């Protein structure tokens, strides 16, 4: 069976599921939170004094302050990580809850293609989340007349797209590996919320996929975000390969 | 000679400290309904999962359509339809949409969907969500999914589990007509002998991972070595005589049931009469299929 038909049949399964509604709702929620934040605190957030105080984090202009406000203050990085966790859990829970793995794997399909099709669904959802959030940032920049270049937002989107690869692959691996979807969700939730703490260590901030997303903010010369993007891509590939190998060897009970 | 569609050679599966299937040699002939029988936990589902490549055998070989399964998995599965234990479906989708997922995956024309819905009598409910189906309807949807590719081999693992008598009757009718309708070979597993007896041509009995019997239904019946039912005026004396002669027996009401160990029945009767037993009943009785099954499986104990 071709990969296209496997992917198409995979996408058909999510009709009437909350998956895609959630994927569109989360960036909207983040947009509302950021708009409220800016509406109430614009006069403070965009002052020169505040921008100066942010320079210790490597933020030197108003667009940087806007990204900082979105990414860290309104906790977009947590929402993004959590959303990916939920999507990966739903994608796999769908097969575990009604024991459809056995029906699927008793078909003439290659296991690696099935795993890859699920990974692509999670990746597509993650990409939509990032792109929508980026678009909303641009809308807010225009709505609130935030001065500065769009370049920083585009770089930010780029870094996010790279760092989420690790989260997508790792979360897809554990959600597929663990029959208990609640356990997989718990690992993801702990990782997403603990990312702040994990990022206190330079080493862990690169090694833990959830912490990579926190580091995606293009502050300073952008070297930290570059490294996080690099580690995001590496762990994305690594966990994808591990996931496929494990899935190929697994007994479907 | 009839061609074997499925053959296993010393098929074994071990999980850590537990041997689920112990070197079984299964052979299923083309165009037949093969009943795979055994108590719960006997190793039926593990064997079926190995036939479908869901789990890897610890040792042994599976050959389907004359080809080695490991080397020809895709080719073989293209010609196989299956329903393993409980029916699998996506509850958020309708019956039609569930079948569309299967049709898309197998690159089949959507026209087959209506055809299989008709076969399993679900056309009327094709737009109802599968989560709202009764167990019988879910089971029929599972069979429709197995049939959609018009397989040459259909494997049904416990298809009547949890169904009420009318549901069992419906599934049984369906299984019986499939070989004629699609010219397919069917393997159906169950722990229920009476269910298998009504649909199967050949039977395999498994318990604790060992294949205890394999052959036609008639061969299984012929295994029923007769028992002798004896009635005497003084049952106590009768038992004393049997004890002194070293016979093994069991009592059923006032009757004594004796399993001859090679002795001719007339010889047993002669011994009883010579020892002054007033025998009024001496009948050879055939064992029912259920009794044969219980004998073979050691009482049909679940594991």
From TrEMBL, chain A:
What is any Pfam family matched here? ABC2_membrane_4
**Looking at the keywords, is Cytoplasm present?**
no
Protein's UniProt keywords contain Lipid biosynthesis: no
Q: Where are the transmembrane segments?
A: 18-36, 73-94, 115-140, 152-170, 182-208, 228-247
Q: Which domain of life is it from?
A: Bacteria
Q: Which UniProt keywords apply?
A: Membrane, Transmembrane, Transmembrane helix
Return the protein name.
ABC transporter permease
């Amino acid at each position: 069976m071709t990969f296209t038909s496997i992917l198409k049949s995979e996408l058909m399964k999510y009709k009437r599921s909350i998956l895609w509604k959630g994927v569109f709702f989360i960036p909207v929620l983040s947009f509302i939170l950021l708009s409220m934040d800016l509406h109430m605190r614009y006069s403070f957030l965009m002052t020169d004094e505040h921008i100066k105080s942010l320079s210790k984090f490597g933020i030197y202009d108003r667009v940087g302050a806007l990204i900082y406000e979105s990414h860290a203050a309104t906790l977009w990085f947590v929402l993004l990580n959590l959303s990916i966790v939920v999507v990966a859990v739903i994608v796999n829970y769908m097969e575990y809850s009604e024991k459809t793995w056995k029906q699927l794997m008793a078909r003439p399909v290659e296991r690696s293609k099935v795993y890859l099709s699920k990974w692509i669904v999670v990746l597509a959802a993650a990409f939509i989340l990032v792109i929508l959030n980026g678009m909303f940032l641009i809308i807010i920049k225009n709505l609130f007349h935030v001065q500065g270049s769009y370049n920083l937002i585009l770089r930010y989107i780029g870094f996010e797209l790279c760092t989420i690869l690790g989260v997508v692959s790792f979360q897809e691996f554990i959600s597929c590996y663990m029959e208990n979807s609640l356990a997989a969700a718990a690992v993801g939730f702990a990782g997403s919320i603990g990312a702040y703490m994990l990022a206190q260590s330079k080493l862990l901030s690169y090694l833990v996929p959830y912490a990579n997303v926190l580091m995606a903010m293009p502050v300073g010369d952008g070297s930290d975000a570059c490294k996080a993007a690099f580690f995001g891509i590496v762990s994305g590939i690594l966990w994808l390969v591990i996931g496929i190998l494990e899935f190929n060897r697994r007994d479907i009970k | 000679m009839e061609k074997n569609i499925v053959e296993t050679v010393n098929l074994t599966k071990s999980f850590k400290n537990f041997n689920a299937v112990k070197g079984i040699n299964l052979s299923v002939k083309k165009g037949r309904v093969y009943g795979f029988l055994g108590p719960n936990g006997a190793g039926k589902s593990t064997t079926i999962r190995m036939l479908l490549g869901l789990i890897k055998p610890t040792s042994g070989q599976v050959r389907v359509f004359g080809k080695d399964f490991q080397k020809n998995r895709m080719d073989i599965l293209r010609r196989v339809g299956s329903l393993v234990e409980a029916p699998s479906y996506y509850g958020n989708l309708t019956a039609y949409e569930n079948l569309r997922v299967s049709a898309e995956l197998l690159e089949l024309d959507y026209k087959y969907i209506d055809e299989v819905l008709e076969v399993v009598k679900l056309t009327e409910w094709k737009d109802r969500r599968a989560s709202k189906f009764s167990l019988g309807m879910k089971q029929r949807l599972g069979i429709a999914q197995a049939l959609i590719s018009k397989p040459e081999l259909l494997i049904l693992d416990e298809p009547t589990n949890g169904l009420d008598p009318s549901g069992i009757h419906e599934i049984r009718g369906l299984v019986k007509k499939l070989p004629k309708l699609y010219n397919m070979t069917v393997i159906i597993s169950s722990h229920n002998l009476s269910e298998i007896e009504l649909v199967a041509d050949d039977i395999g009995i498994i318990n604790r991972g060992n294949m205890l019997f394999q052959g036609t239904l008639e061969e299984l019946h012929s295994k029923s070595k007769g028992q002798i039912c004896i009635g005497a005026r003084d049952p106590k004396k009768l038992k004393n005589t049997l004890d002194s002669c070293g016979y093994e027996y069991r009592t059923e009401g006032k009757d004594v049931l004796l399993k001859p160990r090679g002795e001719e029945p007339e010889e047993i009767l002669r011994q009883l009469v010579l020892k002054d037993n007033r025998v009024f009943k001496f009948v050879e009785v055939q064992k029912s299929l259920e009794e044969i099954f219980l004998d073979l499986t050691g009482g049909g104990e679940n594991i």
